[in-house]
Amino acid sequence: MPPDPDLEAVDAAADYARSIGADGLLSVGGGSVIDTGKGVAVTLKNGGRANDHLNLLTLTAPQTPHVVIPTTAGTGSEVTNIAVLTSHSAGRKLFIADKFITPNAAILDPRFTMSLPKRMTVATAMDAMTHAVEAMTSIMSNRICDAQALQAIRLITDNLPVAVADGKNEKARLNLQIAATLAGWAFTMAQVGLAHAMAHTLGTLFHLPHGEACGIILPKVMRYNVDHATDALIQVAKALNVNTASLSDRDAALAAADAVEALMKKVGHPVQLREVGVKEDVLDMAAFHAICDTAAIFNARPVNDPGEVAALYKQAY
Ligand SMILES: [Fe+2]
Question: Residue 146 contacts by C-beta under 8 Å, 6 or more apart in sequence?
């Protein structure tokens, strides 16, 4: 399966499933595989091609039964109602979002993540971290998904360095899986935000691992949001083990962004886009794509100026 789930992959898998008369799906893989499986579930049930089914909230019945076994700990796709699929003809990532594409069952077994290389362990964990932080700061946040998001942040903070040092540490791997699932639940309610909008665009343009793009962008967006989500970011800082006792509210909120960057440096995650092959001369154009991404709608600070988004990309560069 390609690292970037696309409509062609869904069509190819759906054609194969039809050829063998499949009436159920088992996805074993990371978010790309599970999102592809969600697309297949809809295409098999409703006929036609994947491109016919890119919609929000239009399904009216359960889809093809779909069981998933995640092999990464990041996407949360095992519990989410969204599939992110690249359309090469549109030149961007598009979505199916509907409660009926949430997998029917998910099996979290840490042994399926133990062989995940360090780079993808870190990147996928930063995807989950971004889901959790953006759920906290979203305009759709509520006290139930806040609890899930904060626990996810605590688990990632405490267990990611352990899993990076020893990929076979079953307890740390399980805690990261649980964190990813909690963060997935949280953002299913609260949605995500500008960091995801910007990361989706970088993923399409440069084929960056989604979590790596999220991680690099996240602290910049947290600082951008600081006056619109101060209380939420203070809670995030505490979950990241920041001692906020002597800090003003604004400084405590900003300290959350610093702590995310410190965690990334500790585990060997890149912190600038130039480190991962992004070209500076496309960032102005990327900003226009990012503000059109659905995720930007839910950002704590209203996003309607591509110049501001371009400035964030340049900070991250
Ligand atoms: Fe994500």
Answer: 135, 136, 186, 232, 235
How many Å lie between the centroid of ligand 1 and the Cα of residue 177? 14
Ligand 1 center to 196 CA (angstroms)? 6
Q: What would the pLDDT profile of 227-272 be if each residue is shown by its tens digit?
A: 999 999 999 999 999 999 999 999 999 999 999 999 999 999 999 9
Exposed / middle / buried, residue 95 (Cβ in 10 Å: 0-12, 13-18, 19+):
middle
Q: Which amino acid does the sequence have at 11?
A: D
Residue 181: CB atoms within 10 A of its CB come to 23
Q: Where are the domains of the chain?
A: 7-107, 117-316
What 3-state DSSP class applies to 6? Answer: strand
Alpha-carbon gap, residue 313 to 137, rounded angstroms: 20
CA of 193 to the centre of ligand 1 (A): 10
What is the rounded average pLDDT of the residues 203-213? 91
Residues around the ion ligand 1 (C-beta < 5 A): 127
Percent of the chain with pLDDT over 70: 99
CA 165 / ligand 1 centre spacing (Å): 24
CA of 131 to the centre of ligand 1 (A): 6
Q: Name the residue among 145, 159, 275 with its Cα closest to residue 216.
A: 275
User: How far does residue 245's CA lie from ligand 1's centre (Å)?
Assistant: 31
Cβ atoms of 135 and 193 within 8 Å: the answer is no
Instruction: State pLDDT tens for residues 39-74.
Output: 999 999 999 999 999 988 899 999 999 999 999 999
**183 C-alpha vs ligand 1 centroid, how far in Å?**
10
CATH 2.130.10.10 is right for the domain spanning 7-107: no
Q: Is the dihedral of CA 171, 174, 180, 182 positive or negative?
A: negative
Q: Distance, CA 215 to ligand 1 centroid (Å)?
A: 10
In whole angstroms, what is the distance from residue 53 CA to residue 49 CA? 7
How much is the mean pLDDT over the chain? 95
Tens digit of each residue's pLDDT (9 = 90 or more) over 277-294 = 999 999 999 999 999 998
117-316 placed in CATH 1.20.1090.10:
yes
